[in-house]
Amino acid sequence: MTTLTKSGLAAAVLAAFTYLPLQANAALFDDDEARKAILDLRAKVEAMRTELSGRIDNKTDKSSTLDLVNTQEQTMAEIAKLRGQIEVLANELSNVQKRQKDLYIDLDARIRKLEPKTVTVEGKQGTVDPTEQKAYDAAVLLLKGGDYKNAALALGDFVRMYPESIYAANAQYFLGNTYYVQKDCKGAILAQQLVVKNYPDSPRAADAMLNIATCQTELKAVANAKKTLTDLISKYPDTPQAQEARDRLKGK
User: What do the Gene Ontology cellular component annotations say (predicted)?
Assistant: First the structure.
């Protein structure tokens, strides 16, 4: 059996150290390679321990045994270093996995923000994309804040950009209201007529007809107001707005 010399052991340990940093760097990019590096290092450590123990047992020469014992101590120190590097490598692997998980969670959250969502408006369901939702919310916020001029611009832009939106009927109706509060009855009538024409199935359509009749009355177009109220009763007979129209006609 060949004697394990100090230089031979040093060469084996040096080879193990030369191999280790490459695997440690690889762990930053590939989990499988990092795991393989850990397993390989552990196997090398155990092989070195087993080989050294076997050779000590087979030596009868006292001086040779002493040399081997000294070599073993040196080797054990190197093994301890290898184990330390294994721990570092395992820790790096754990950190990589955590970063990957955090990255996935962040990416998933960003994707969800870009996905259309389902909303219910006036009893109807529809999907809206984030840009559409943001534009509508901004317009309504201007309206609620009393900035009717800019609200009218924002609502008009919204209807032009999203004519098929689940919010379109509301936006067109609110647009008519912004004209009315600015004492622009003609603009209000035109805007509300588009609600009736383009969104006849919307609950806002009956409200729009009431608003049209109100503006026509204020413009002294009483005959037109009566016709609008009559049409409202005919189109939406079972609605609260139809009852309001009947009450108004009785008073005229």
Answer: outer membrane-bounded periplasmic space
**For 50-100, how does the pLDDT look when each residue is reduced to its tens digit (9 = 90+)?**
766 665 555 445 566 667 667 777 878 888 888 888 888 888 888 888 887
State phi, psi for 3 to the nearest 5 degrees: -75, 135
Q: Record the tokens describing residue 180, joined without a space.
A: 């009315």
pLDDT at residue 156 above 90? yes
Across-strand partners of 126? 119
- H/E run at residue 127: strand 124-128
Beta strands in 48-92 (DSSP E): none
DSSP-derived 3-state class of residue 141: helix
Class of domain 127-251: mainly alpha
Which two three-digit tokens encode residue 183? 């004492």
Region for residue 135 given its phi and psi (left: phi exceeds 0; alpha: psi -120 to 50; beta: otherwise): alpha
